[in-house]
Amino acid sequence: MARRPEPPSDADAAPDDVLWAKVTASVRPLRSRGPLPPEPPRLRVQVRPQPVEAPELSRQRAAAAPEAASLDGGWDRRIRKGNIEAERTVDLHGHTQDEAYEALAGALQRAWRDDVRTLLVITGKTRPAGKDGRPRGVIAANFSRWAATPALRPFIAAIRPAHPRHGGSGAWYVILRRKR
Fold this sequence. Notes:
Layout: H1 16-25, H2 59-63, H3 73-81, E1 88-91, H4 97-113, E2 118-122, H5 138-147, E3 156-161, E4 171-176
């Protein structure tokens, strides 16, 4: 059988102030070990991405459009059959033109720095102007021109339209140059 609790004694029923006084009287302060050491200063470190130095490009290559640049037969055959796997993907949907160009430039530079060979760039498909008269698919329409700019062309060996399973006319394969 369980026991009933005993009723509280007079000492337990004392007001809170009396109880608190008893508790504080029984507490001893900790021994002091001297003054606390000063906090080490917080360092402010800003990590800035290192600029990627573009590889040198011959005048002939610089003049050639990236979509007309030649690849060996193995590359073109794999691209045509859709047997190519992109190592990275960049989706430019939902960006303004300026944001899309910056995202593309950053992705190309990071991919080249990391020795990535193939990049899938999703631009979206070009479409006729909407009911409001605004053009649609501006990023897709400008992609080849952006790839030919002097800032991006040195990183690119060639660009090819993507296979339908990877986006078809709304995406591009970017084959990056190897580091020499």
